[in-house]
DNA sequence: CACTTAAA
DNA sequence: TTTAAGTGG
């Protein structure tokens, strides 16, 4: 059930970071941050990351650890933040809220029982992107001179739009497969993990399955998206076959005598989302490292040794870039 | 979301 | 072979 089904349809290829030299990637900030929050908090005691005022800002560590990869490979990120929440996504958000509450209950029980390992695991699952996390992330990115764009609605949709129409933007950076439905020409996955990034090719995917963009969206809706459950019995194979046979979603639904609530609106969420061209970013990035470092270690009381390495890597990479300009 | 396993 | 459902992260 759901979005990962798209992986089976997507045309993916491994790329080397070397191939991305000088390119620009619009990163879905929420997606990227979430990745770091759930991994950096995993095996550690959260006390380390809590300030004297009780704010949990381990996102700052994630940002410092995650950014060097971009600098070192001369891949310029534009972080795209979410704006308002989409009405149709309320159901999913409600579901997540319920799960989180369940985990939080279990977490309390584990803490009372003194089960540290269990507690740490549950802790990772209760991570949420608070306002403080968003604000401090923006502040730090600002000090590091990393371009930021505020999306009117979904960050993913905005990033995909930018990759589609802005000549300066080469890829979307996201782990989600939705960017395929949003028409992002190229999506880079696994930018946070150890190995090579994975490149997802939109046009090649359409060609591979002989589908139009609209038809691919219809396939996605049949399998299930963030906004709907999909049709029972429909996975990627069956959905592609059915859409090709009946032309579009409406044809399939008629043939199956089925109904998907808000299908037309869900379709529009992918084909014509709420996005803007009203942004401007300076892609010439020159970070103020000492300001950034004191922001993280002094203002937010992150232990210096947690971020030293990351800052040093950024320093080395930017100095190297400065040298390159003279050669 | 990735991976595994069960079921059809 | 394809989907469904569960688990861990």
UniProtKB/TrEMBL annotation:
Mg(2+) 1 binds at residues 28, 82, 154, 156. Gene3D superfamilies: 5' to 3' exonuclease, C-terminal subdomain, 5'-nuclease. SMART domains: HhH2, XPGI, XPGN. GO terms for molecular function: 5'-3' exonuclease activity; 5'-flap endonuclease activity; DNA binding; magnesium ion binding. Binds 2 magnesium ions per subunit. They probably participate in the reaction catalyzed by the enzyme. May bind an additional third magnesium ion after substrate binding. Residues 142-211 form the XPG-I domain. Residues 118-247 are annotated as: I-domain. Keywords: Coiled coil, DNA damage, DNA repair, DNA replication, Endonuclease, Exonuclease, Hydrolase, Magnesium, Metal-binding, Nuclease. Residues 1-103 form the XPG N-terminal domain. Pfam families: XPG_I (PF00867), XPG_N (PF00752). The keyword DNA damage applies. It comes from the Archaea. Its cofactor is Mg(2+). GO terms for biological process: DNA repair; DNA replication, removal of RNA primer. Its EC number is 3.1.-.-. CDD domains: H3TH_FEN1-Arc. Residues 86-120 form a coiled coil. SUPFAM superfamilies: 5' to 3' exonuclease, C-terminal subdomain, PIN domain-like. Mg(2+) 2 binds at residues 176, 178, 226. Belongs to the XPG/RAD2 endonuclease family. FEN1 subfamily. Interacts with PCNA. PCNA stimulates the nuclease activity without altering cleavage specificity. Structure-specific nuclease with 5'-flap endonuclease and 5'-3' exonuclease activities involved in DNA replication and repair. During DNA replication, cleaves the 5'-overhanging flap structure that is generated by displacement synthesis when DNA polymerase encounters the 5'-end of a downstream Okazaki fragment. Binds the unpaired 3'-DNA end and kinks the DNA to facilitate 5' cleavage specificity. Cleaves one nucleotide into the double-stranded DNA from the junction in flap DNA, leaving a nick for ligation. Also involved in the base excision repair (BER) pathway. This is Flap endonuclease 1.
């Amino acid at each position: 059930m759901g979005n990962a089904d798209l992986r089976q349809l997507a045309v993916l290829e491994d790329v080397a970071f070397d191939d991305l030299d000088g390119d620009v990637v619009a990163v879905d900030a929420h997606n990227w941050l979430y990745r770091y929050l759930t991994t950096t908090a995993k095996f550690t005691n959260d006390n380390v990351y809590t300030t004297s005022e009780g704010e949990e800002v381990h996102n700052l560590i994630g940002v410092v650890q995650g950014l060097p990869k971009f600098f070192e490979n001369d891949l310029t990120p534009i972080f795209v933040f979410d704006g308002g929440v989409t009405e149709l996504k309320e159901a999913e958000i409600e579901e997540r809220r319920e799960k989180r509450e369940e985990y939080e209950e279990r977490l309390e029980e584990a803490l009372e029982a003194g089960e540290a390992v269990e507690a740490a695991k549950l802790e990772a699952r209760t991570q949420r992107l608070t306002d403080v996390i968003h604000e401090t992330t923006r502040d730090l990115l600002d000090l590091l001179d990393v371009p930021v764009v505020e999306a009117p609605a979904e960050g993913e949709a905005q990033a995909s739009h930018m990759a589609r129409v802005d000549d300066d933007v080469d890829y979307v950076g996201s782990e989600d497969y939705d960017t395929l439905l949003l028409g992002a020409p190229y999506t880079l996955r696994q930018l946070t993990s150890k190995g090579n990034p994975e490149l997802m090719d939109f046009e090649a995917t359409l060609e591979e399955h002989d589908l139009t963009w609209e038809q691919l969206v219809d396939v996605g809706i049949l399998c299930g998206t963030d906004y709907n459950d999909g049709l029972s019995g429909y996975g990627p194979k069956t959905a592609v076959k059915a859409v090709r046979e009946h032309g579009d979603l409406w044809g399939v639904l008629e043939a199956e005598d089925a109904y998907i609530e808000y299908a037309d609106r869900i379709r529009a969420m992918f084909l014509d989302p709420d996005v803007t061209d009203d942004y401007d970013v300076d892609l010439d990035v020159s970070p103020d490292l000492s300001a950034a470092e004191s922001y993280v270690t002094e203002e937010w009381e992150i232990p210096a040794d947690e971020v030293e390495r990351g800052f040093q890597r950024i320093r080395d990479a930017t100095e190297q870039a400065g040298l390159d300009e003279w050669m």
